[in-house]
Amino acid sequence: MILFWVAAGVLSAAAAGLILTRAAGAAARGEAADPTPVLYRRQLAEIDELAERGLMGEAERKSAHAEAGRRLLAATDAPARTWTADPAARLGVLAAVVAAPALALVIYLALGSPGLADQPFAARMQGWLAADPAQLGAPELAAVLQKKVAERPNDPDGYRYLALAEGASQDAPEAVRALRRGLRIAPDRADLWEMLGEALLAESNGTLTDEAKQAFRETLKREPNAVVARFQLARARIEAGDTAGGLADWRALMAQLPPGDSRRAAIAGAIAVQTGAAPPPVMAAGQPPDINAMVQRLAARLKTQPDDPDGWVRLVRAYAVLGQADQRDATLKSARARYAGRPDILSQLDAAAKAEPMK
User: Fold this and answer.
1) Given this model, what pLDDT does residue 28 score?
2) Which of 129-138, 227-236, 284-293 holds the top average pLDDT?
3) What CATH number is associated with residue 213?
4) Is residue 199 domain-shared with residue 246, that is, in the same domain?
């Protein structure tokens, strides 16, 4: 590695020296004579030639001749300036070019690891393959699983595990790719369709795209009681404007889950955010990511489409229900300023800010 830095420094200095040497030669010769007068004299001759050949009328010739003559006189009267360069400035530039790689080498020797051996990917892969999978990080586990599925390309479970590892590595596009490959092998696997919908959600930062909705629909064709698919398709109904229908679907889904199922809290929280009603204490098991994602999307939409009083009321209520007092107060302040002349909206905002938070 040290040899690399030395070679890079030498090459940089050589290149800079060559450039500055050529520049110095150009400066020593000075600038060539101004070609502008020669150009205009040639233009005058061409105008006369065109007139003699009958390709230009007399009036047109006189006009063009006068314009070219005027430009010739202006160019002849302009003072000639020859470009020169300061040798001291060239030395300063050369010194800076030489010093830059030298300084980089010094910093690398002080802060880097010049004695560290190379770590080729193949060698690291062998170590990961020999290690306990439970001790590997998500990116390393994903790399191992990529090798495994290449060895067993017809195993849909391999792609399922690979998608889980890619998702844990925050690489949603790769998770989507793995699940699509798994579904080509096992198109009737409801769990793979549901995971694909979730991966597409992650890829779009929580936005329910048409592809994600279709994946969830395919899930329900094969497993009508799939919880995630039912939840997300109910959310799609709400986002499409059918709030009552979506809420009814959420409530029906929650009623079918066992009392101790932690997913009841997520559904209850989503209903609370949508309606402003705090969930019952038995369902208060934390704030699931879906709720926060919904609130963030609403806040982002209001930034670009602020003329939505119902949206501002819902956002204030959501922050209150989630217990996010700072965001609630800041949003309430902005909304009150926007609708200062609307007492009906102000009263709704104040009521929303007083919503009970989830315990």
Assistant:
1) 61
2) 227-236
3) 1.25.40.10
4) yes
Question: Are 13 and 73 members of one domain?
Answer: yes
Q: How many domains does the chain have?
A: 3
Backbone angles phi, psi at 116, to 5 degrees: -70, 130
* pLDDT for position 195: 92
Name which of 2-16, 162-176, 233-247, 300-314 the model is least confident about.
Answer: 2-16
Identify the pLDDT of residue 1. 53
Q: Do the domain assignments include residue 197?
A: yes
Domain boundary among 256, 272, 297: 256
Over residues 173-197, the pLDDT tens digits come to 999 999 999 999 999 999 999 999 9
SS3 for the chain is CHHHHHHHHHHHHHHHHHHHHHHHHHHHHCCCCCCHHHHHHHHHHHHHHHHHCCCCCHHHHHHHHHHHHHHHHHHHHCCCCCCCCCHHHHHHHHHHHHHHHHHHHHHHHHHCCCCCCCCCHHHHHHHHHHCCHHHCCHHHHHHHHHHHHHHCCCCHHHHHHHHHHHHHCCCHHHHHHHHHHHHHHCCCCHHHHHHHHHHHHHHCCCCCCHHHHHHHHHHHHHCCCCHHHHHHHHHHHHHCCCHHHHHHHHHHHHHHCCCCCCHHHHHHHHHHHHHCCCCCHHHCCCCCHHHHHHHHHHHHHHHHCCCCHHHHHHHHHHHHHHCCHHHHHHHHHHHHHHCCCCHHHHHHHHHHHCCCCCC
119 inside domain: no
Q: What is the pLDDT of residues 63-95, one digit of tens each?
A: 877 787 777 677 666 665 555 556 666 677 667
Question: Global pTM?
Answer: 0.51
Q: From the centroid of its chain, how far is CA 269?
A: 29
